[in-house]
Amino acid sequence: MPPQNSAHAPPFRVAMAGVVGRLIRCWCRRAVAGSLKVPALQLHVSKTAMGASQKDFENAMNQVKLLKEDPGNEVKLKLYALYKQATEGPCNTPKPGVFDLINKAKWEAWNALGSLPKETARQNYVDLVSGLSSSSDSSSQAKPEADRKQAEYETVVMTSEDGITKIMLNRPAKKNALTEQMYQEIMLALEAASKDDSTITVLTGNGDYYSSGNDLTNFTNIPPEGVEAKAKNSAILLRNFVGSFIDFPKPLVAVVNGPAVGISVTVLGLFDLVYATDRATFHTPFSHLGQTPEGCSSYTFPKIMGPAKAAEMLIFGKKLTAGEAYAQGLVTEVFPDSTFQKEVWTRLKAYSKLPQNALRISKQIIRSQEKEKLHAVNAKESSILQERWLSSECMNAIMNFFSQKAKL
Ligand SMILES: CCCC/C=C/CC(=O)SCCNC(=O)CCNC(=O)[C@H](O)C(C)(C)COP(=O)(O)OP(=O)(O)OC[C@H]1O[C@@H](n2cnc3c(N)ncnc32)[C@H](O)[C@@H]1OP(=O)(O)O
Question: Which of 29, 50, 175, 393: disulfide with 290, CB 3.0–4.6 Å?
Fold first, then answer.
């Protein structure tokens, strides 16, 4: 790599890379395959097979034109090089000048094949196209797989469209209160979303609430091993749940479609964007429940909104309006409820078209600055809560919630 002495060198390189990319895209449209669309692929190019006929080669050239997704510049250059090698043999033209970017890139790809025999180049071209076609097919078959996975979730709905995977909490009659099953399913859904080919992952709620937080019946369902075991298992669940937000590798967006309570508020500090309807409220009534902050909020909230405002929320349980949450930095943007869904999804669809790897890597750079710290905070908060759940303050608060309901 050339030395980067000039302060302008990196932007220049970025700009030049953009120019090269545009030129190669343009060239590929004209010279190779029309409009190519294939995601990042693992290519297995045979170096030994020699059996491709001229007919196979021509079929492969036609197949390239039918690919559904863009294979990327690197693959397009490889296709070009193999085509030239298969039809003309080793590179036999002078190297283009340094400013002739597109022809230089093509020449280098072709020249890199050295003395590869024409027959091998032809076979490798056929193999490469066949790999692209099967990957393209399998990516277009992703939907049935997603549907199969969906059948495994009972409390969330997971869908993928337009580069966005949406995980929707789906207990509207219970205000999307989070049962133990739901924590598990959200973690599974996040895991699946982290590996799928979407660019952005969204968490939202079905119905009038985003989520009313931890389902308080989680604490009433005591196993035969006793309350200590229950508290211990709940702390492990909590730690794992929050951990999956800390470690989530792609841009994560909360579409807060209504009021949010407890843990559904605290983990917002771990999202990359938080869009809220103006109907949303943000409430962490931990002290009222004899509990303490979780979701890394004891660390993220003072950082986001300053210690005074964080204390008002986390210690004294002040409920924020969407406007207040925006003013305090917890929410990225507030939208009128009447246009919320339309505006948010339009915005997200545009964002999902940005270069996927750049988004993911940028998120990871930001997160890496404090990942260890977040995990340490999560562990501490979970362990403190394990104790709190055994306290009479907490037990009384939960009994009050259910006895008030019973009186109604
Ligand atoms: C692994 C463990 C991690 C633990 C960490 C998390 C900490 C927290 O999340 S603390 C926050 C806990 N949440 C709450 O305290 C909220 C409790 N719920 C309410 O205060 C009200 O239900 C709410 C203000 C959200 C909505 O009030 P309403 O509009 O009046 O609706 P209803 O109360 O009639 O609710 C409808 C239906 O849903 C049930 N519901 C709602 N939220 C919860 C909940 N969090 N837990 C259990 N059940 C909940 C409510 O009881 C009603 O049920 P039915 O009466 O059977 O219809």
Answer: 393
Q: Rounded to an integer, what distance in angstroms lies between the CA atom of residue 105 and that of residue 407?
A: 76
ipTM > 0.95, yes or no = yes
Chain mean pLDDT for the chain: 85
237 lines ligand 1 (CB under 6 A): yes
Test site for ligand 1: of 175, 208, 210, 282, most ligand atoms within 8 A of the Cβ: 175
Altogether, the residues listed in the chain come to a count of 408
Give residue 140's pLDDT.
Answer: 42
Query: How far does the centroid of ligand 1 lie from the alpha carbon of residue 350, in Å?
Result: 35
Q: Are 257 and 203 in contact (CB under 8 A)?
A: no
Structure tokens of 172?
A: 């509207």
- The boundaries of every CATH 3.90.226.10 domain in the chain are 156-406
CATH annotation of 54-133: 1.20.80.10
Does residue 127 have its Cβ closer than 6 Å to ligand 1?
no
Residue written as token pair 């988004």: 359
Complete edge-to-edge strand list for the sheet that includes strand 200-205: 156-161, 164-169, 200-205, 252-256, 273-277, 333-335
Could you tell me the distance, in angstroms and rounded to a whole number, from the CA of residue 210 to the centre of ligand 1?
12
- Closest C-alpha residue for ligand 1 atom 37: 174
Q: What's the rounded Cα separation, in Å, for the pair 232 and 215?
A: 17
Which tokens hold the place of 350? 């545009």
d(CA 289, CA 365): 36
pLDDT of residue 165 exceeding 80 = yes
**Rounded Cα–Cα distance for residues 353 and 164 (Å):** 10
Residue type, 66: L
Whether the predicted pLDDT of 302 surpasses 50: yes
pLDDT in the model for residue 62: 82
| CATH 1.20.80.10 domain range(s) in the chain | 54-133
How many angstroms separate the CA atoms of 362 and 251, rounded? 9
Give CATH superfamily name and number for 156-406. Answer: 2-enoyl-CoA Hydratase; Chain A, domain 1 (3.90.226.10)
Joined together, the tokens standing for residue 225 give 């091993």
**Residue 217 DSSP label:** G
- By three-state DSSP, how is residue 96 classified? coil
